[in-house]
């Protein structure tokens, strides 16, 4: 069961509590909360049968005190302005937390891409990019993939932009490698999540070797996190996707499962484990529970069933604020999304840098740089967590908000 989250309230509450923690001045607080710009567009699509269908598209630019706006484009039937606004602000805090020179933005179209043919998807993608063209730019706002958008859609975006502005690979990240994408980008969010899990285990004196892990959502982030954690010695005992979950108490053969899932885009019928539901997966006894699918999956109604030691938030916003509070009071640590899943935007930043230099780095170099940034951000969060005696989430927000506030003040208005 997934409950409808009031996204704006959730992000405002988190912001306010962290702003209180660092004693942020009232005027700066109001300014940092307010999105810089919100664009709502009509995206008309000529369907294959000749008819026209219109969709609603959004691009929200939350804050650019530290650099150009940065954030993904989501294609989903539940996308609305409120959700895009909240995700845009999360990007501001995430980019600040890992200390990359970006602000935060997000975009989307309210549509179910599975209802469209491949050619319709291309037309609607190109039309949307034309519609937001006036406000994007390689030094202004750099989109990327998000839920239901991928490297192919980024290739269409880049091509569309190039028609009026000349060849500009740095206009989007998450592109195919052949068009200037970065080596290591596909695995980056999962790799970052695994690095943060490893650091968390070290920090709280847990043995990573044999540690049990349950992963909800074995998509891009979940599957790479699982693969890398299993290489680090963890035992992945449960995985799931939109079709349901699988439980294997002795641990899955992850290389085999990973390849199966890569080919079939599901773990269903992989020949390992026994069937469980997504709700049962959340309630399994394990060391690390990694929600890596959707927002709002851990909420007031199911939080008491959790039996993990630590929640590693790979998805954006998987734990509602009331559930977070309950977990904190119970002593179950939650490593927040803006830290755990920041590996993706970090390697997106590396992709942009490579594009600006018209150069390509080796994969090892990308992974080393990612490792350093993730570990540094983790240590900064732990330092504030200890100093302020607060949750990891509040500490992460405090580090990020403080950084954005400093840039904001230095720039002036
Ligand atoms: P994805 O589409 O590759 O994978 C999502 C997975 O979740 C799939 O296995 C899907 O079947 C599963 N899923 C969907 N609905 C579900 C449901 N109701 N119950 C259980 N499982 C369900 O997406 P992704 O790129 O892996 O993103 C996952 C999450 O991580 C999202 O919240 C996304 O915003 C966040 N995130 C992704 C990146 C990135 O670089 N891909 C970066 C930061 C954050």
Q: Features of this protein?
A:
single chain; 413 residues; alpha/beta; seven-stranded mixed beta sheet; five-stranded mixed beta sheet; 14 helices; 12 strands; 19% strand; globular; binds nicotinamide-adenine-dinucleotide
Write a concise synopsis of the structure shown.
The protein is α/β, with parallel strands linked by helices. The protein has 14 helices and twelve strands. Helix content is 46%, strand content 19%.
Architecture overview:
The protein has 413 residues and is an alpha/beta fold. Helix content is 46%, strand content 19%. A seven-stranded mixed β-sheet has the order 9-8-7-6-10-11-12, sandwiched between helices. It has a five-stranded mixed β-sheet with strand order 1-2-4-3-5. Strand 3 (69-76), helix 3 and strand 4 (104-110) form a beta-alpha-beta unit.
Mean pLDDT: 96
Largest sheet: 7 strands, mixed
Oligomer: single chain
First CA to last CA: what distance?
Answer: 45 Å
Number of strands: 12
Question: Unreliable runs, pLDDT <50, ≥5 residues?
Answer: none
Relative strand content? 15-25%
Report the structural category. alpha/beta
Question: What secondary-structure arrangement, pairings included, does this model have?
Answer:
Layout lengths: L6 H15 L4 H8 L3 E10 L5 E12 L5 E8 L4 H17 L6 E7 L7 H15 L8 E5 L5 H15 L19 H19 L8 E5 L3 H12 L3 E7 L2 E4 L6 H11 L9 E3 L1 H5 L2 E7 L15 E6 L8 H10 L2 E3 L1 H4 L2 H15 L5 H26 L3 H20 L2
Parallel strand pairs: 3-4, 3-5, 6-7, 6-10, 10-11, 11-12
Antiparallel strand pairs: 1-2, 2-4, 7-8, 8-9
Helix pairs in contact: 1-3, 1-14, 3-14, 4-5, 6-7, 6-12, 6-13, 7-8, 12-13, 13-14
Bound molecules: nicotinamide-adenine-dinucleotide (NAD).
């Amino acid at each position: 069961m997934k409950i409808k989250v009031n996204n704006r309230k959730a992000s405002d509450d988190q912001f306010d509590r962290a702003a209180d923690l660092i004693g942020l001045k009232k005027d700066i607080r109001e300014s940092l909360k307010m999105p810089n710009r919100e664009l709502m567009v009509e995206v008309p699509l000529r369907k294959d049968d000749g008819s026209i269908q219109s969709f609603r598209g959004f691009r929200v630019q939350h804050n650019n005190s530290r650099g150009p706006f940065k954030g993904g484009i989501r294609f989903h039937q539940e996308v609305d302005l409120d959700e895009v606004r909240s995700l845009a602000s999360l990007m501001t805090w995430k980019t600040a937390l890992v200390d990359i020179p970006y602000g935060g933005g997000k975009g989307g179209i309210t549509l179910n891409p599975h209802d469209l043919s491949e050619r319709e998807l291309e037309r609607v993608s190109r039309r949307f990019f034309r519609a937001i063209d006036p406000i994007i730019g390689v030094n202004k706002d750099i989109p990327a993939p998000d839920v239901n958008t991928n490297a192919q859609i980024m290739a269409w975006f880049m091509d569309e932009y190039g028609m009026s502005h000349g060849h500009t690979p740095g206009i989007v990240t998450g592109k195919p490698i052949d068009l200037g994408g970065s080596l290591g980008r596909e695995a980056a969010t999962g790799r970052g999540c695994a690095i943060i899990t490893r650091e968390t285990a070290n920090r709280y004196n847990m043995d990573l070797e044999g540690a049990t892990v349950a992963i909800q959502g074995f998509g891009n982030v979940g599957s790479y996190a699982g693969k890398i954690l299993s290489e680090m010695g963890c035992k992945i005992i449960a995985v799931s996707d939109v079709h349901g979950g699988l439980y294997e108490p002795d641990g899955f053969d992850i290389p085999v499962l990973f390849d199966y899932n890569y080919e079939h885009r599901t773990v269903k019928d992989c020949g390992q484990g026994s069937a469980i539901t997504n709700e049962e997966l959340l309630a399994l006894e394990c060391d690390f529970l990694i929600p890596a699918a959707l927002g709002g999956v851990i909420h007031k109604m199911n939080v008491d069933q959790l039996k993990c030691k630590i929640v590693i938030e790979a998805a954006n916003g998987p734990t509602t604020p009331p559930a977070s509070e309950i977990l904190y009071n119970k002593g179950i640590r939650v490593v927040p999304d803006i830290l755990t899943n920041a590996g993706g935007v970090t390697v997106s930043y590396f992709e942009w840098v490579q594009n600006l230099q018209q150069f390509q780095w080796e994969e090892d170099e990308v992974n080393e740089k990612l490792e350093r940034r993730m570990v540094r951000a983790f240590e900064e969060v732990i330092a504030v967590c200890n100093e302020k005696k607060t949750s990891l989430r509040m500490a992460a927000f405090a580090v990020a908000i403080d950084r954005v506030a400093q840039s904001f003040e230095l720039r002036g208005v």
